[in-house]
Amino acid sequence: MGSFTQPVHRTGRRAADRTGPSRAVAVSIEGLSAMASLVTGAECVACGQTEVVLCTACRSELHAQGLSPFAAGHRAPALADRPEWTVLAAADYGGVVSQVVLAQKRRGHRVLTRELGALLHRAMWAFAGKARGAVGPERPGELWFVPVPSSGASFRKRGFDPLALVLSGCAATGLPPDSVVVPVLAVRGLPERLAHALLAAARPRDGDGAPEPPLRRLGRALLSTLPGPGNGQKGLGAAARRRRLAGSMRLSRAFRCAYGADALKGARCVLVDDVLTTGATLAEAGRVLQGAGARVLGAVAIAATRPPADRGSSQEEISEQGMNY
């Protein structure tokens, strides 16, 4: 659906029942991977150790950082007007975590996808536990995990959707009870976004009832839609990101054709993203879901950036986060 190619993932057997290959087969697979790394000249994406994509020490550090999902909504200024949302992240974005996230985005490597899936899996189960505790003894409805979509340009550039790969691994490991991964959203293409921006700009402003002059309206629509050099969101603050993302998402045509827009009415939705920065992407995704009648409970992410005071003023470390228009 949208840029996602996998079907809806529903809760299967308990994770303990889904053991997958035996230990001997797993060891053999790892051995073959190591042999392939010797031929291709692979090196650890975090420390540079040769012959492995992710060395044992860096893998251990990655999972040590992601053992305890934590509340991260306060780090996202664009979510300040959504205090009722629960926002959980598996780890801080930095060090080994950031290196693995960026490398998986670039290459979609199976090993990296599996390791990030383990982090996201913990956050999803933690959120499901909080959601069950918040509704009391009555049985709640199904919990929909809705991934933030990848843009068409990003998909064509990479040839895959990084978050979709990670979520597929989570579903294979075992989703929380009464939960489902549903690719509901899609990113508008550039022509569609421009048309949407022109329609929005045509509305009267400042309460005076006077429409904006056509040339000024066109210029404002172009500025709000067209990406700048490189990544369309690189170096932008929370307010600028939110303006850039306004109107950029919609329900995917595949979802509407398969289920109808009314399927979202009353649905309990949790957004899923890889890295939480300002929260502008989640805010836009939540706007679309709520407009379709869904009840958005919050979001989960693999990692969350530290507050600006903790990470300094450099934007280099988050240059590849978010959707790439």
Automatic annotation (TrEMBL):
Keywords: Glycosyltransferase, Transferase
Pfam family, one: Pribosyltran
Location of the region described as Disordered in the Swiss-Prot/TrEMBL record: 1-20, 306-325
CDD domains named in the record: PRTases_typeI
Protein name: Predicted amidophosphoribosyltransferases
SUPFAM superfamilies reported for this sequence: PRTase-like
Alphabetical list of InterPro entries matching this protein: ComF/GntX_DNA_util-trans (IPR051910), PRTase-like (IPR029057), PRTase_dom (IPR000836)
Highest rank taxon of the organism: Bacteria
Phosphoribosyltransferase domain segment(s): 264-317
Protein family per UniProt: Belongs to the ComF/GntX family.
Biological source species: Arthrobacter woluwensis
GO molecular function: glycosyltransferase activity
Signal sequence segment: none
